[in-house]
Amino acid sequence: MPVIKKKTEMPKRGASERATDFEEVALGYSAEQALDEARRCLFCKDKPCIKGCPVGVDIPAFIKLITEKKFLEAYLKIKETNYLPAVCGRVCPQEEQCELLCTMGKKFEPVGIGRLERFVSDFAYKEKTSETSLRRNRGRLQNKKVAVIGSGPGGLTAAGELAGAGFAVTIFEALHEAGGVLVYGIPEFRLPKEIVRKEVENLRKTGVDFKYGCVIGKTKTLSQLFSDGYSAVYIGIGAGLPKFLGIPGENLNGVYSANEFLTRINLMKAYRFPEYITPVKKIKNAAVVGGGNVAMDSARCALRLKAENVYNIYRRSREEMPARKEEIINAGEEGVKFNFLLNPVEIIGDEKGFVRAMKCAKMKLGEPDESGRRRPIVIQGEFSMFEVDTVVIAVGAGANPLLPGTVSGLKLNKWGYIEINPETMETSIKNVFAGGDIVTGSATVISAMGAGKKAAGAMIRRLAE
Ligand code: FAD
Ligand code: SF4
User: Fold this and answer.
1) Distance between CA 20 and CA 208 in Å, rounded?
2) Which is the closest atom of ligand 1 to the Cα of 436?
3) What is the spatial distance between Cα 185 and Cα 190, in angstroms, rounded to a whole number?
């Protein structure tokens, strides 16, 4: 059979249509497309792709099942090691993980592993059999309770593993809905919330208890959890503290952190105001500062709120943008206007305290810095102005001190992230484990899931002692 050099293309909605609503952009493969793509796999003996997957999905095995048209079995194969395949198939940066190591990728385009993962997950959901994989191995250790703080992908994975091993698991979540960034950050058009809700419901069916509106460190302390009878705790609280630029004008009306902007829109459904009670400012011209996934999501949300112009402002060039390539392409197709080598120096307000413009210094690129990317350097005296009424700052996030700051003896690094023993994921406090963004800083869904899984394994071993 001749080698098919390119990945089967992902069908997606037309840019002008999709930029006006929050419906999903990518449509997913048909069975024929999935078969075409699966047949590109070489089924390599050494399976290098698996090494690129933080949760160790047996990739060739599930692809083989697709070639045999055993779509449900393929889904169950992934579920053996990954709790959230429908999520990962949509948002994981496969191009930097499994697909980066794919043998096909050495000469041609790698196998579309993520697209195939999405296909079988959607198939299982349509067949309403996604829950058939739930592990009901409860009983043996049920006399022990464990607490999971935070319901992001890391917390959900840890809870699933711990419940599967027979512990009584309670997830304490600060917000009113489970999923972490999957529900408050990543927009509906990339990851429909229904998918996250189904996964949460599946976990609930295995007996995991969810306590919402409970901020550990405020509503309850960590030590109270132990006095309430929990034998061990997993901390998966993410890194959701917004960073700002520290420039004049950031306190003006119309300036948002990406965190607030996206939470209003995604979790609180502000785009359906007044049907939902949280509003978001009507936008004419918006500037979104930053070059990562968060910036792309914010810019594309601003477009969908009917902004006339959405400018993305990034201090390096397109090559250095950390956002996923396909999302940069999607944003450009939808009408986001990219402006590279610019760094905001001032946000200018009107007499009523509302944003009216943003001034940016022009930049050039120097030698690579510690991140490996070329360092942006200010070109003295050269500026660009943007007439905007809304500015969204998406330049990263840090560790929220609400919980770590209230626990004596919990070792933190100089940025406020929790220090752990990388072998056991245990913190400086016995029986308190941690993982995900609160340990590594902002990373990825799958790395948080990998951490949750590893920590759960260590907790299971400890509590069985
Ligand atoms: P989180 O998902 O941050 O969840 C932490 C949870 O803990 C939250 O629900 C929070 O409310 C809760 N919490 C916090 N403090 C407390 C407390 N004291 N008590 C109780 N609960 C608490 N990654 C990708 O792989 N692909 C992408 O396309 C992608 N896009 C992204 C887009 C956006 C807008 C953002 C913000 C991030 C994106 N990421 C992406 C990164 C990814 O979402 C995160 O790395 C991942 O969600 C981290 O998971 P986590 O489990 O560590 O924490
Ligand atoms: Fe298939 Fe690529 Fe994995 Fe080889 S490396 S088994 S080609 S997915």
Assistant:
1) 38
2) 52
3) 11
Task: Check whether residue 248 and residue 380 sit in a common domain.
Answer: yes
The per-residue pLDDT for 142 is 62
The boundaries of the domain holding residue 279 are: 244-395
Ligand 1 lining (C-beta closer than 6 Å): 91-93, 149-155, 172-175, 180-181, 185-186, 215-217, 236-238, 240, 262, 293-294, 297, 324, 400, 402-403, 436-437, 442-446, 448
Coil, helix or strand at residue 307: coil
Distance CA 190, CA 377 (A): 34
Structure tokens at 398: 């840090």
Q: Are the CB atoms for 222 and 428 separated by under 8 Å?
A: no
| Inter-axis angle of helices 293-304 and 325-334, nearest 10 | 20
pLDDT, block means (10 residues), the chain with 465 residues: 88 95 96 98 96 95 98 95 93 94 96 98 82 50 88 96 93 97 96 93 92 96 96 97 97 97 94 90 96 97 96 96 94 97 98 98 92 90 98 96 91 96 96 98 95 96 88
pTM: 0.93
Contact 376, 315 (CB under 8 A): yes
Q: Please report, for the domain that includes residue 58, its CATH number.
A: 1.10.1060.10
pLDDT given at position 141:
57
Q: What stretch of H or E contains 123?
A: helix 113-126
